Amino acid sequence: MTASWLIAVLAVAISGTAVWRFEPLPRMPLPSRLSIAFVAGSLYVTTLMFAASAAGIRWSPFWIAPLVILPAFAVRRGERSTADRATWLGIGAFAAITLYGTATARETCADLLYFWGPKAARFAAARGIDVAFLADPEHVLMHSDYPPLVPLLYGWGALVAGGFGAWGPLLLTAFLLAAAAAVVHGFASLRTGAAGAPILLAAVLAFTFAEGLAAGAAEPLLILFEVTAISALTFAAETPGGAAVASIALAAAAMTKVEGAAFVAIAIVAWMLVSRRLVRALAIALPAGLLLAAWIPFAAAHGLLDSYSRATAAQAAAPLGTVLRALVTTASYHALYLPWIALFAALAASLRHLSHAKLPLLAAAGSLAAILYFYLHPYSHGADAVTWIVWSAERVLITPLALLAVAVAAAEAPEKRDR
Amino acid sequence: MRRSVIAVASVLLALALAMRLRSGGPPFFARPATIVDHVGPGEHSQRAALILLPRIASLLPAGATVTCFRPIDGRSHDDGESYLTAISMLPRQHVRPPLATSSNDKPRFVVAIGSAFVDPAYREVSAFPEGRLYERAASR
C-alpha cells in the first residue's frame, strides 16, 4: 500500500510537466523541473478533486488518472544543462538522512495521526470531501474549514492504493526536502553558481524537520510551495515561466494551511515593494485569491466554517513579553540557534551581493512578523499562546528559515543573466 | 569565504541532525512497529493504540459505533488523542468521543487502551496485551 500510495502522489508531477514549456524552465536541470512539475501537479490534481466534490462528482482513479496524464502532452523537452554533481550529492545526502529518520519513525508529526490522516482516509472512503464527517459536531477537533490541499493529495494516494497508511506521507518528506532544494538550485542556476546555498537549505530543512517533528504534516509541502514561489519571484519574475510558477506555488500555499494565505499576502507585498509592479503582482496572486474565494464559500455552504470565522472575531492579545520569550526559547531548536546562526553567517559572508536578496529577506521578515502576530492573537483554537507555541512554533518557524536560505542563494555573485 | 561558511554550517547541521535522530533511541536499524516508536524519550502516548486498533478493526462491523480511550480508574474521560487516533485507524466505523459512554446514546463498542474499563453497561469481548474490546451488553 505504501509503495502504490507514493507512486500515485509523485505521479501528479506528470500533469505538472505542462509548465515546462515556459521560459526559463527548459534551461533548468531535470530534477529542478521535476520538482516544479510536482508543485504544479499537486495544485492541479487537488483542484480537480475539490471541483469534483463541489459539483457532486464522485472521485475515481479511472477518470482522474487520464486527466493527470493529459496535460503532459503539452510538455516541452528541456535543454541539456550543466551537471552539478556536488550540489546533487549534497542535497541527496540530506534527503537520505531524512529518509532514514522518517522510515525509523523518528520524525513523525502527531498531526498526521490526528488530522491529516483521518481526513485523507475519510475523503478517500467517501470518494469526495466528506462534509458530513467534517460538519459532525463530534469532529470539532478536525478543523473542518482548514484548506484542503493536504488531505486531498493524501486522499488521491489512498484512492489509488486502496486505503490510507501513514508511512507514505512520512517517506514523502525526504522527497519534499530534496524538491525544495532542487527548485532553489534550478532557479538560482539561471543567474548564479549558487552551488552551496541549496545544500545549506537541505541541511536546514533536514534538521528542522527532525527537531520539529514535521514529517507527514503540512509543513514540508508548505515549505516546498513557499520556497518555489519566492525563488521564482527572486530569479525569474519577469519571465513567463517564473510568473506562472510563482502564481501556481502561491495558490498551492494558500490551499495548504491558513498561514499559507498570509504568506501569499507577504510574498506579493514584498515583491511589489521590490519590483514596483502592482498590476503584475496582483495578477500573480489572482489564482490564490480565486481558489480561496471558492473554498471558503464551499465551507460556509456546508456549515464547516471554523478557523476562518474565528480569524475575524475580536480577540484579546496575549502578553507580548510572554509570547516573545516563548518564541525565542523555541527558536533555539535545542541546538543553540544553529539554523539561524548558519544562515546569518552565510548572509554575512555574502554582504557584497546582499542587494540581490531583497525579496527573500523581506519575505522572511514579513513571515516572522506574521508568526508573532498569529501567536499574539490565537485564531484557530482555544489553547493559550504559550501552549500553542510549544506545540507548533518549531514547525512554523521553518518558513522564515527556508526563505533566508533562498536569500543566501540570491546573494551569490551573478555569473550569467536570465533572458 | 562564503563557500567555507556554507560548508562548515552544513556539516554542523548534519552533526546536530545525527544527534537529534540518535536521541530517538535504539534499535537504529530495525523496522519500527508504529510511526511513533522513536519520536522522543519514553513511549509515545498513542503507541499502544496504534498496535491495538488494527487488530480490533477486523472484529468491528462496518458502520458500528465505537469509542476509544485510556481509562483512568476504570472510567472514560476526555481522551482526545486516543479518540483522534481511533478516527484515523477505524475509517469503516463511526468513532464517537469517549464521554459518549456516559450518555444515553452509548457507542456499541469501547476500545480501552492499557487498563480495564469498568461499566456495567459493557462486557469484555476480547483482550490483547495493549488493551481490551468491550461491547454494550444490550447489543446482542
List the defining traits of the structure above:
heterodimer; A: about 425 residues; mainly alpha; 20 helices; about 70% helix; B: about 140 residues; alpha/beta; 5-stranded mixed sheet; 5 strands; about 30% helix; elongated
Short description, anyone?
Chain A has 419 residues and is mainly alpha-helical. Helix content of chain A is 68%, strand content 0%.
Question: Would you give an account of this structure?
Answer:
- The complex is a heterodimer of chains A (419) and B (140).
- With 419 residues, chain A is mainly alpha-helical.
- Chain A is 68% helix and 0% strand.
- Chain A has helices at 2-10, 13-16, 30-54, 61-69, 85-103, 110-126, 131-135, 149-161, 167-188, 196-211, 219-236, 240-254, 258-275, 278-301, 307-311, 320-330, 338-348, 358-376, 385-396, 398-410.
- Chain A starts with a helix and ends in a 9-residue tail after the last helix.
- Chain B is α/β, with parallel strands linked by helices and 140 residues long.
- Helix content of chain B is 30%, strand content 18%.
- Chain B contains three helices and five strands.
- Chain B has helices at 2-22, 47-57, 80-89, and strands at residues 65-69, 94-95, 109-113, 122-128, 131-136.
- The longest helix of chain B has 21 residues, at 2-22.
- The radius of gyration of chain B is 21 Å and the shape is elongated.
- In chain B, 44% of the residues are buried.
- The model of chain B has no long low-confidence stretch (mean pLDDT 92).
- The interface between A and B is large, with 57 and 41 residues.
